[in-house]
Design brief:
Protein name: Polyphosphate polymerase domain-containing protein
CATH superfamily: VTC, catalytic tunnel domain
Distance between the termini: 33 Å
CATH class: Alpha Beta
Helix content: 25-40%
Structural class: alpha+beta
Number of strands: 11
Number of helices: 7
CATH topology: mRNA Triphosphatase Cet1, Chain A
Organism: Petralouisia muris
């Protein structure tokens, strides 16, 4: 799996409206959306010394983080994800988990993972044992995804970022989360070898600044 380019920008609500109009004219919507968007719930893992959090805030060039995620309150589609970054490029690896497997992990029972043959789950288990990875916080948000086939471009608008504080009742869709302060709307643009000019032009905004914004980091401020 190759690394991809990634831009992040913090934008305002007016920018969101402009981008919706521009992107709707030139891109396709993700087929998994409901009314053009979906709700994402992630549970992030970190070490006892918060290695992933510290590496993010310190701007470490080579880093990784693990999370478990599902969409639109659907517990039949749960994914373990590892996101890696190097030299500003990113890569995401995924593996399927059942709700039962996820709950055993949340219960601190890792014995079944030791027998699993899926490489990413095996790696996750190894780092749970060797690094002490543990659930840290739930992160909820709304995402509007736009897809453009040339360059394998994916543009997303993320907002309503909410934190579980220290709540890790991940599989309860009704588990309460609260807004993560004044977290901005985040524009993300991801692509492979090249970014087509039509997309580059569409996402250009006045007073828009590149950001190293991390939903995990902003939600960890609260616990």
């Amino acid at each position: 799996m190759k690394y991809r380019h990634e831009w992040k920008h913090e934008i305002g609500y007016g920018d969101l409206l402009v981008l919706r109009q521009r992107l709707s004219a030139i891109t396709k919507r993700d087929v998994h959306t409901i009314d053009g968007k979906y709700e994402i719930r992630s549970l992030y893992f970190d070490t006892l010394t918060d290695k992933a959090l510290r590496e993010k805030t310190d701007g470490v060039n080579i880093r990784e983080k693990f999370r478990i995620r599902y969409y639109n309150r659907d517990l039949s589609f749960i994914r373990l994800e590892k996101k890696s970054k190097i030299n500003g490029l990113c890569r995401k690896e995924t593996a399927s988990l059942t709700a039962e497997q996820t709950q055993t992990i949340l219960n601190g029972d890792y014995s079944r993972m030791a027998q699993n043959k899926v490489p990413l789950i095996t790696e996750f288990y190894g780092k749970i044992i060797s690094q002490g990875l543990r659930p840290k916080t739930i992160v909820d948000y709304t995402r509007e995804p736009y897809i453009f086939a040339p360059g394998n471009v994916r543009v997303t608008l993320d907002y309503n970022i909410r934190t579980g504080i220290q709540n890790t009742d991940f599989l309860n869709p009704d588990s309460v989360t609260v807004f993560a302060g004044n977290a901005p709307i985040i524009l993300e643009v991801k692509w492979d070898e090249y970014l087509p000019d039509i997309i580059r032009d569409a996402v250009q905004l006045e007073n828009c600044r590149t950001s190293a914004f991390s939903k995990y980091a902003v939600c960890r401020v609260y616990g």
